[in-house]
Specification:
Blueprint (H helix, E strand, L loop, with lengths): L1 H18 L11 H84 L1
């Protein structure tokens, strides 16, 4: 937001320094002052251009990082879903193991009674 305000202020200053030149009614202007105003405006635009290029490269690199982060988050989500499924199946297998152990114990006890 600060960059937006700065850019708006710079645009306003450039307009003010170039649009106030009298061009009618036989008015005369100081060529040196006009040259200085335009030169200053060009300098400001060059600085703004450099700043915008710098910000653009930062935005582009941030965009790449955000894309990579989104891909990692999607992979993590898939892995968490897989873990949830594995835990559910492990719980089922554990219940089945307990049941089989119980049946084995019961069979051993029955065999001892028969002997």
């Amino acid at each position: 937001m600060d960059y937006n305000n700065s850019l708006s202020g710079a645009i306003g200053a450039l307009k003010a320094s170039t649009l106030r030149l009298p061009v009618s009614g036989g008015a005369r202007g100081d060529a040196h002052a006009v040259k200085h105003a335009i030169s200053s405006a060009v300098d400001v635009m060059q600085v703004m251009g450099s700043s915008i290029c710098n910000l653009l490269s930062k935005v582009e690199s941030t965009g790449v990082l955000v894309s990579e982060l989104a891909a990692v988050a999607a992979k993590e989500r898939a892995m968490l879903d897989e873990c949830r499924e594995l835990l559910a199946s492990t719980t089922g297998m554990q219940v089945q193991e307990y049941s089989l152990r119980t049946q084995l114990i019961q069979l051993k006890q029955r065999d001892r009674k028969v002997l």
